[in-house]
Amino acid sequence: MVGPGGPIHIRRDSTWNVPEPELTLVLSASGAIVGHTIGNDVSSRSIEGENPLYLPQAKVYDGSCALGPVISLNNGQQDVWTIRLTITRGGVVVFFGETSTAKMRRTPEELAAYLFRELTFDAGVFLLTGTGIVPPDDFTLCGGDVVSIFVEGIGTLENPVA
């Protein structure tokens, strides 16, 4: 995990790597939503596609996730969030996508409740809610790219690709 401005990584043994911009829930030890931030859950799709059992290798490795830029405390007011993904390469936008949390199948409260059904987190936990923006199959991240994820009400998480 890296913070704002920290380098995210792509696996050298993967030929297809993409960012996954996500609203991230900040949950207390009791499972209550106490805040929100931005998450980038980088995925090595070529590894994931070889075999569903390889999902941990495709999603969990050094530099595979970024969080930030801040934690916006939950005031119970905002329930729909706009999410924008911009990827630049050499200063040129090579991908742009936008979605809304209104398109999510499950509410944040449902996701939090499901996570806490059989798990405990003594200090709380960050829950990435899933992505609604996926670059096309012929796109892969490259070293030097810059991934920017904007979430209305939170700000922008920006990370270079190592």
Description of the molecule:
The chain has 162 residues and is mostly beta strands. It has one domain: Alpha-Beta Complex (Fumarylacetoacetate hydrolase, domain 2), CATH 3.90.850. It is built from three helices and ten strands. The chain has a four-stranded antiparallel β-sheet with strand order 5-3-2-8, covered by helices on one side. Strands 7-6-9-10 form a four-stranded antiparallel β-sheet, with no helix packed on it.
List the topology elements.
Blueprint: E1 17-18, E2 21-27, E3 33-41, E4 43-44, H1 45-50, H2 55-59, E5 65-73, E6 82-89, E7 92-100, H3 108-115, E8 125-128, E9 146-151, E10 155-160
Antiparallel strand pairs: 1-4, 2-3, 2-8, 3-5, 6-7, 6-9, 9-10
